[in-house]
Each structure stands twice: as structure tokens, then as C-alpha cells.
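User: Hey, quick favor. My workstation is busy. Could you predict this chain's structure for me?
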Amino acid sequence: MKTALIQALTLIASGDRQVGIILVTTLRMVLASSVLALMLGAPLGVLLGSYVGRGKRLLVVVNRTLMGLPPVVVGLVCYMLFSGVGPLRHLRLLYTVTGMVIAQVILLVPLITGSLEAHVSTLAPDIRETALGMGLSRGKILLLMVNESQYQLVSAYLLGLGRAFAEVGAVSMVGGAIAYKTNVMTTAIMNYTNMGDFTTALALGIILLLISLLLNAGVALLHWGLER
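Assistant: No problem, here it is.
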């Protein structure tokens, strides 16, 4: 174990080309999917959190159900849509980074929506009362809620980013873990472990762990800032 750890650290320090390609592919997929998910999930979260009409509880329950959607189910649905007999086969998204991004977005949007909905729901009554007293329109009230949720927006994004880095089921099915094309850190760790290449698997695991540590530290600092 000690020898494998030393070899893994040496591999990282040497700037191994294979590890570098896997890291770049992972960053491309994760950054694209997390930004797109934030663009879709943030407005939905603010709207759902500020909504007071009938059916809100149902919408919240539906979103929370989607938050727990099994990644392999998303991967299966995307695979069926993108495969040679699927309705979206002409787009040729199967075994591509773009296809993996789409699968990730489906998983991340409910997560970001739920995070913002929970936050905005606690702010909405006070903000709405103050804003209506000032004669603000509904659009300006929503913008005010977004402004008051800046820290939560960043926190929700980091939460989605962490989930995107850790995902393996959906991206494995849609991307196929093709070397130098769609192989990302999580799928590569699994593949290298199965091949008995524990040095490379451990090197990728260390990088993934460091990324997770940085993201969690970022979220903790944000919450600390909110509490002050």
C-alpha cells in the first residue's frame, strides 16, 4: 500500500500524459454540465421558492424525487435516446463528451433547484411583504430574491460541481469510458482498478479527493460567511 501511494504521488508529480488527458476531459465535462445546470436550475429554484399558489407542495415533492434519481436510470434513458435505434440517433451523441454533459445536466438541475428553493422559501415572505410595500413589480421582486441569494447560488453551484465530479453511473453508460475521448476520473479509477493498475487508479483517486476537499472547503467558507 505504501509503495503504491509513493508511486501514485510520483505519477502525479511527473505530469503523466495519460492522467493529464483524463483530468482535462473530466474538467471539460464537469464545468460544462455544472454551468448549464446552474443556468437552468437557479431560475427554477427561485421561482419555486417564491411561488405560493396551489400545487407548490406537489412540485417540491416532484423535484425532491428527481434529486434522488438513480444515475444509472438517467444513463439508461440517455443511452436509449442516443443509440442507433433511438429518436435522437441522428445527433450522434452516444460515446461523446456532449452526451455525457446532457446526462449530467439532467442529474444536476433538480439538485440546484432544490437547494435554491429551500433557501428562497425562507426569505420569500419577508422580501415579498417589504417589496409590495415599496410597490415593486413581480419581476423586480424575483430579482431582489436572486440578489439576496447570491451566497446560496455559489453554494448550490459548488454542490452541483461536487456531484458532477463524483458521478460514474450515467457517464459510464453514455460515454463508454473510451480512452483519450470520454474516459473521466471516476470511470478511469474503476477501469484501472479492474485492470490491476492500482498506481494510476490511486493517482486519480488522490486528485479526485483533493478536488472534493477544495469544494467542501469552499461550501464551508460560504456557510461561515452567511452565519457572520
